[in-house]
Amino acid sequence: MNLRCRFPPVLAGILIGISMLLTFVVAGRGIGVSGMMTRLVATVQHWVLPELTEKSAYFSAYFAHGAHPLNDYLSYLMIGLLVGAFAGAWSCGDFRFEVQRGPRISVPGRLVYALIGGAITGFAARLARGCTSGQGLVGAAELSVGSWAFLLCIFIGGFATAWFVRKQWI
Amino acid sequence: MDIVAPLVKTGVISEAANLWLAVPIGFVFGFALYHAGFTDSRKIARAFYLKDVGVPVVMFSAIVTGMLGLWLLSLAGFIDTSKMYYLPTYLMPMAIGGLLFGIGMAIGGFCPGTAASSIATGRVDAMVFVVGFLGGSILFGDLFPVWGDFYKSDYRGVYRLDELFGMNLGSVVLILVVAAVAGSLLMRLGQHLFWSTPKDQSMEPEQVLKYEVPLVVLALVIGGVLAFFPTGSFFKQDNTSTYYIIQKEAAPAQMHQRQQGPRKTPAIETEPEAPVPTHKGGEGC
Predict the structure, then answer these.
(1) For testing the chain A interface, which of B13, B133, B265 should be mutated: the one with the most A CBs within 10 Å?
(2) DSSP characters for B209-226?
(3) Is the Cβ of B7 closer than 8 Å to some Cβ of chain A?
(4) Which chain A residue has the Cα nearest residue B215?
(5) Is the peptide bond before B88 cis (omega within 30 degrees of 0)?
(6) Long-range residue pairs from B194-197, CB within 8 A, at least 24 positions apart, any chain
(7) How do residues A107-148 score in pLDDT, each as one tens digit?
(8) Which of A52, B60, B89, B148 could form a disulfide with B180 if both were Cys (CB 3.0 to 4.6 A apart)?
(9) What are the residue ranges spanned by the domains of chain A?
(10) Angle at the Cα of A152 from the Cα atoms of A77 and A14, rounded to 5 degrees
(11) Residue A108 CB-half CA count within 13 A
(12) What ranges in chain B are assigned the alpha helix state H?
């Protein structure tokens, strides 16, 4: 195995844990990704439908006191995340446009699954107030009961669904 | 030693510096996600078939690292955990959200962080996944009145496992470290049993032992220190300090109520004692 481009799981996990620990020490909060994506859709919808978005029961909080939704800690984190992943892939000669799919599924089929899975995940992340990083990893490290329930349920939901979509992956 | 962290809450660094420091932290996160193989949707999805258990092992070790680091730094009196922002628990919405999230992950092959980092490597399925993700988020937001009541239900405040189990926090940490190690071993056993020759990025046992065993021993030792250190809870209400080891001199003034919005604390008591931050405000933001 190429140790330069694929860290052993425990070492990669420790590195992710360290990035999380750094946000605790520096910012007193955790890492997070889905929050930034919500702020992004709020911004886009605000371009198209400013009045509706500012009065929206859910999105209005992002515009309180003339604030800009994307002027937030998570946006800076996202910039770093994108650059970091790009740097990793580029230095390993692994940057390429490709549809990743299992051996038994077509390209359009995979993209339809990706779209559906993304939509369900997007809805679920809002309902759970976070995703795998913000709610899962950070909350688990903080020993939050809700986060551990969330993590456990991800595995239950994933294992329960796996059989039905097996043609896509294996 | 004065309590210096969280740096932005104790005034060591400015708000602007905090924002810009998020960029290198995000870089480490994205770099690690790539090197964990998390930019590959197939690898993530194979975890749900126990065909490649690298994903849960990475997650467990990330949680253990963050957890041990946070509470050990608190024990050492380096980080003021009462100034941290904690995620509140809304139990049912989070459980149902987790179920849906798991279903979405098995179908889509990503979660938001891995999809974003995968986009940065050029993967097209990740781009489509994020389009779907944004769609799901906007649907949730725009039809919020439909599920708003459920979203706000079952509120438990900041609710930690040590409170749930009625144990001291260090013991819970030690139990979770043991559970993470046991869970990783069980999942590897499952992969070995169900998929006879796991070729994907698996390693030879000797190699695994060489670097993993010392790390697991270290984690258990730190967990043991946290669990058996002869004090009560990190957050004992009648204690004058929120820390195990460092008992501050002017204790009563340092008392913080953990539950009452730690991020709102305007004037931080430790600030006058802290070394004057000479670089403060010079970030050119």
Answers:
(1) B133
(2) HHHHHHHHHHHHHHHHHH
(3) yes
(4) A10
(5) no
(6) B194/B49, B194/B50, B194/B51, B195/B50, B195/B51
(7) 999 999 999 999 999 999 999 999 999 999 999 999 999 999
(8) B60
(9) 1-96, 101-170
(10) 45
(11) 0
(12) 15-35, 41-46, 54-75, 91-108, 112-119, 124-142, 144-151, 161-165, 169-194, 205-228, 251-254
- CA gap B151, B93 in Å, rounded: 6
Contact with chain A for residue B119, Cβ under 8 A: yes
Model confidence over B249-276: pLDDT tens digits? 333 443 444 444 444 434 333 333 333 3
CB of B241 closer than 8 Å to CB of B251: yes
Per the listing, tokens 């446009």 go with: A97
Tokens of B253: 């003034």
SS3 B79: strand
Gap between the Cα atoms of A100 and A111, Å rounded: 9
Residues 6 or more apart in contact with residue B214 via CB below 8 angstroms: none
Extract the tokens encoding B54.
């690298």
ipTM of this complex: 0.96
Q: What span, in angstroms and rounded, lies between the C-alpha atoms of B276 and B267?
A: 15
Task: Please calculate the CA angle A110-A112-A118 and round it to the nearest 5 degrees.
Answer: 100
**CB-based contact, B258 to chain A, within 8 Å:** no
Nearest CA in chain B to A5: B35
Q: Name the residue facing B59 among A13, A78, A128 (closest C-beta).
A: A13
CA distance B23 to B148: 33
